[in-house]
Amino acid sequence: MSTAYISGRVPARYARLVVKQARAARTSKSDLVARYVVEKSLESEFPGISFRDSLSGREAYLTGHRVAVWEVFDAHEEFQSLAKTAEHFHWPVVLVKRALAFASEFPEEIIQSREGERHGVPAVS
Question: Which of 1, 8, 38, 65 would suit a FRET pair with 89, their CA atoms being 20 to 30 Å apart?
Fold first, then answer.
C-alpha cells in the first residue's frame, strides 16, 4: 500500500498520551497517529462505523453493536435483501446500508477481517 506524509502539531499534554498509548500498543508514535487519523477519517465519512481490535487486527464494526461490518456483508450476501438482513440483526435498514456502504468502498478490508476471524490470521498492514 502506498502512503503519504501528513504532518501536524498537538499540545504537549496530548503528545504524552500518544507516547504512552504507543508504548502500550507496542507500536511507534507515527504508526499509532496514522491509525488514529485513518480511523477517525473513516468514522467521519461513514457515520455509525467504528474500529476495534480483533483476531485479524483492527476491524470495522457497527457502533454500539458487537457485529463486524464483514458479518453484515456476509448476511446480506446470504439474504440478498436489505430488509431481510436488517430483520436478521433486529436493526433498522439504515444500519445495514451504512455497513454495506463501508464494505463497498473498502472490500479488501472486509476480506482481510473475514479471513482473519475465520482462520485466526492477523491482518497485514
Answer: 38
Task: Match 475465520 to its residue by C-alpha cell.
Answer: 118
Cross-strand partners of 62: 49
C-alpha R_g of the chain: 16
- The three cell numbers locating residue 4: 503519504
Output the pTM of the full model.
0.84
The closest of 50, 58, 55, 12 to 32, measured between CA atoms, is 58
Domain limits of the chain? 10-45, 47-125
Using alpha carbons only, give the angle 103, 29, 36 rounded to the nearest 5 degrees. 30
Distances (CA, A) of 54 to 15, 21, 33, 37, 114: 26, 18, 19, 19, 11
Contact at 8 Å (CB) between 17 and 23? no
